[in-house]
Amino acid sequence: MIKLHRSPKLFKIALVISISLVLVGIFFLVRLFHSLPSINLLTSKMQVPSIQIVDRNGLLLYEITPGEGKNIPLTSDAIPQCLKDATIAVEDKNFYKNPGIDLFAIFRAAWLNLQSDEIVSGASTITQQVARNLLLNEDERYKQTYIRKIREAVLALQLAQKYSKDEILAIYLNQMYYGGLSYGVEAVSQTYFGKPANELILPECALLAGLPQAPSYYNPYENIDKVLERQKTVLELMFKEGYINAIEKKDAENYSFHFNPSPYPIYAPHFVWLVKNQIDELYDQGVLQPMQSMVVRTTLDLDIQKISESAVNHQIDKYHLVEEQIDKNVNNAALVVIEPNSGEVLSMIGSLDYFDDSIDGAVNMATSPRQTGSALKPFIYALALDPAQSEPWTAATPLLDISQTFMLQDGRSYTPSNYDLLEHGFVSLREALGSSLNIPAVMTLEKVGIEDSVDFLKQVGVSSIVDPKNYDLSLALGGGQISLLELSSAYGVFASGGFYYAPIVILDIRDTEGDILYTSPKSIGQKKMDARIAWLISDILSDDNAREIGFGIFSTLRIDRPAAVKTGTTTNFHDNWTIGYTPEYVVGVWVGNSNFEAMHDVSGLTGAAPIWHETIRSLMQGKPTQDFEQPAGLEEVEVCAISGLLPTDACLKTRKEWFLEETVPTEYDSIYQEVWVDSVTGLLADNNTPDFRKKAVIAFDLTGDAAKWAESQGWLLVSDLVEGKTTTATHEKIELTSPQPKTTFRIDPNFEIGSQQLMIEAETNDIFQEVRFWVDGQLIDTVMDAPYQTWWQLTEGEHEFWAEGVENDGITYSTPRVEIRVIRDVE
């Protein structure tokens, strides 16, 4: 028999290894269970945060405290069974079977985690979630480590020993965060449905059970389609687990939800909801902890908010108080005020009444995309003015405002028309933009291209318009949908001298002791536009003379200081806009109906503009007048009015215009031509024409559509003389330059009637003893010297104007008669 002898050396090695393993095990257990919280602390951890949302000056907008019912614990019996079933189905299907942890789910999660070399699945039961959220401290709670998972599992086993399944489920449903700053099922039921949790029905239970996975993402007010998809997933799991049958599942999937706005008093509710949603995002990112008290200081100025609300209510009420008038069907409005050099939102009104279901008041129309009408035009013209263009335009570039047909990419034809259905012939780019003429805007979009225009809009913060293939030339007249907040922020690029600042609504967040928890990153302006172009657009949009063709002078768009402003009206009056700004504020206004019902003959000028006017005048009251700061690199040059080129002696009408230094004109006008005609034949004079029959006249050298339009206006063309035509132009001696024919002027009730006058002006190509001005057959003034101007008090109705020039020998020359219309704005 062989006798084995133990080696003392091997024995010592084994002993050392054993002792080491024991020590490692002890170390692991100490580390695992060291500072493991006692489950007896559970009730003390059930605290609801008090969250105050305040304006920039610390004035309270909205406060969430236990006293307001944002967290009212319910007994297990008071919680509806459908919510229990839905929660178990989606969170922990073996809840009533497992001992607090699910071993099968843990092994499956471990396998997935090993395959991916990271923790991608946690396999947390409802009991584990209670342990994690209420017992683990904040530093440990969000760690994705195996140590944390084991400690969480140990606590879950302990909880399962001390509490019944019904008690644990009740704790979960009373303390879980559901988004919207609502903790527990009672709070979230009141927030989203305006009723106690015990009145919830199956489709509502399924919807709420799906929210805790990602509260900010599954927000019914901001992302309803995704919320309903999630609800269907919950219902499918309930059906699979046998909680509901096929008929119940189908009925719940087809249920029409009616969401309730906050049941508590609140200032600027749409703004507050926007802030709350951003807080939810900070929770999801782990920046803020859901069980933490805090004060959220926002960008809103409550004083400015009250000014805005007063203007909206005052102007919209006018449409409902006028008796014996056709109902204009104007039921809603939205308004934002933005500080253009920071992007801070100072005021936001999302609807006329947040709590009025008849107008869908809870829908935030300041953030809902709608068609913009003409409000996009400034960006298209800004692109055309860019000197980087192959042939950049200028503010003096002539555009022919006559009916034109454009071919679209799909082969269809497109014939835009102006709001007044008139053609205005030669207009400068300044006049086309200032008066919001549609035909020139489409011409401009065709020049700069849809793709470049969409790209430019993205640069200035318009993310709603994405794929150029989805748009055609109608984009210039509002063929895309953009939110008021987004578009107003884009207008801030003009006000800030070319810099884009993304809109922000939160300044900082502090705990109750004043310590900073979060500070919004300072919005750094991004240069998106040449400062000179931004200034030039602002100069055009604040030029009352440039607006005369479209809006008349002394319209609602004019205030007592420089203010650039643009209106927009969509087809069939579904939406109308006014967005305007000073160097200090951008004010954007939308008027319409949330349900897309058309208003009746309400434009941006009559619907949104009065609200804008009242708001911005109130904001600027008592503040010194401030001009838009003009950058270097601009030159003011006298040009010939029609061509926008340098004037010659033949040019009958000149004006001054601002140019970027790269685009200052160097060519001379060639449209006005001084020619000699035979006074007997009316033809061009030649070498055979006696000198006494030669007469110098000014004729226009035009071709194509321009010549046809000029001929229709009685202009004398060089081609007429060459071809032997004998058309005599009445403006050869005297021309009535103001008012323009077929123009509509408006009497604004916001101004004293005595200050609303129309300038009548005549220009002559001869020396007259006097110029007489006539209105409706009455001589209103006689002017002896140039400039031949006078003023006429606006009077409602249809009117006829003309002027007469009287030479020394008594011969009188008369201008063609010009008809205009004067209407009164709704008070």
Secondary structure elements and their pairing?
Layout (H helix, E strand, L loop, with lengths): L7 H26 L17 E4 L5 E5 L16 H11 L11 H14 L9 H9 L3 H4 L4 H17 L2 H11 L9 H9 L8 H8 L14 H17 L5 H8 L15 H16 L9 E5 L3 H20 L10 E7 L6 E5 L20 E2 L5 H9 L12 E4 L4 E2 L5 E2 L10 E4 H6 L3 H11 L1 H10 L21 E2 L1 H12 L3 E2 L5 E5 L5 E4 L6 E2 L3 H11 L6 H4 L12 E6 L5 E7 L4 E7 L11 H17 L13 E7 L13 E7 L11 E7 L15 E7 L3 H9 L5 H5 L11 E5 L5 E4 L9 E8 L5 E6 L2 E6 L4 E6 L3 E10 L5 E3 L3 E7 L3
Parallel strand pairs: 1-3, 24-31
Antiparallel strand pairs: 1-2, 3-13, 4-5, 4-18, 6-11, 7-10, 8-9, 12-15, 13-14, 16-17, 17-18, 19-20, 21-22, 23-25, 25-28, 26-27, 26-29, 29-30, 29-31
Helix pairs in contact: 2-9, 2-10, 4-6, 4-7, 9-10, 10-11, 13-21, 14-16
**Biggest beta sheet attributes:** 6 strands, mixed
Strand tally is 31
Poorly predicted parts: 112-122, 724-731
What is the mean predicted local confidence, pLDDT? 84
**β-strand amount:** 15-25%
Measured as a percent range, the helix fraction is 25-40%
Quote the distance from N terminus to C terminus: 122 Å
**Backbone structural class:** alpha+beta
Tally of individual helices: 23
Instruction: Report the principal-axis shape.
Output: elongated
The radius of gyration computed from the alpha-carbon positions, rounded to a whole number of angstroms, is 37 Å
